[in-house]
Amino acid sequence: MKVKMILPALAEAESPFWRPIKYSLFPPLGLATLASYLSDEDEIDLIDQHVEKIDLNDNPDLVVIQVYITNAFRSYKLADHYRSQGAYVILGGLHVTSLPDEAAKHANSIFIGPGEDTFPQFLKDYKANRPQKVYRSTQRSLIGIPPIRRDLIKRNRYLVPNSIVVTRGCPHHCDFCYKDAFFEGGKTFYTQQVDEALAEIDLLPGKHLYFLDDHLLGNAKFASSLFDGMKGMNRVFQGAATIDSILRGNLIEKAAEAGMRSVFVGFETFSPENLKQSNKKQNLAKSYEEAVARLHSLGIMVNGSFVFGLDDDGPDVFKRTVDWGVKNGITTSTYHVLTPYPGTRLFQDMESENRILHRNWDLYDTRKVVYKTTKLSASELEDGYNWAYKEFYSWSNILKGSFSHDSYKHKLKHLMYSGGWKKFEPLWNFIIKTKGLNQMLPLLESILSEVKPKKNSSSFINSAQTTTS
Ligand code: SF4
Cα–Cα distance between 118 and 123 in angstroms, integer? Predict the structure, then answer.
């Protein structure tokens, strides 16, 4: 059987602000995971439209398309094309789960929720000529899943080919997050077995890993055993965690010992009102500064995520957020315009208040305002968002942020990581064109090399309090 698996490019790929490097970071692990259920005889073509062109002049038997909100319209076009050619088309992913009726018009079968538990059943049904219209995930487990088909990934097209996911979901329930809708009807947070995760890590070449888990520290027992197992593996890695998990216990020290060198943290907002509105309880009454200082004391760089446009945000939010990030030595900041994704509680609330402006999913890219704002006008919000990016990544602020660190090595790492990420676009574009992105891995690994913790870091950690920021 000829199988074509496609990750269509997001609408942002056509934006004037499109940064090819941003979309050449991680390979499509979800599709490579599903591919592991296909047989050795199947001919699999796995295409990521962010890094390669799609040839539409082929005739696969089965087409599998992963749908996100801003590639939904593109996905539907591709699906319609292949169905008109006689292929059997299945659609799955976050957007399909949020809006199954919309997606079903373009598919022979749709997948609701994570596909790895239902895809094997689909394959059986398909081969028996009785595929169902809808596959809904209810029983979920990562125990004994087959090894992901990494051989299908074109490693040289990605800066971070060693991406890995060892958990699914997240234990929290933020109202703006797609997570609850995607995992509805079954477990919302579950992990691989530690041994299996370690075995997968062991197979990855080089030193660097990027855990794409929503919350790597979400299950303390699992994370602790994982980090214990990774200690002697000589790895450096990046991942994501919440503020409360960074401040609690000694898990973050274990992560640092195992090789964690940077962490993505969802600070989102400084306003307790906004946190309450978003049900982001895990950030409430926590000191953001102490979480950041604790990470820095362990030599872990911080990638902060911030949302603009929650109802308590006024015109001062942009400058306050940028200034805070620079003052606290945040290495990279990701800013978002609040976006009510369909399927989320935020969307339901806004819809019931008649605040959703339109359903042009291409514009739901976290750069544009798609809802009626309160204390900020839509143009203030978009302008402020653009200003924040420009300001945070100005050379003067990159330098200021770098100099906020104590050690010379941490200063240098900050400068190279932050400057390298945002200031060398033509170089990145050249490397992408020459398909040599993964040649940059040794450089990334050296930037992520260890900064020795300061001797008195543990006394700081023990004195960490939790206060509202
Ligand atoms: S902590 Fe992050 S991943 Fe978890 S529900 Fe909140 S936004 Fe989603």
Answer: 9
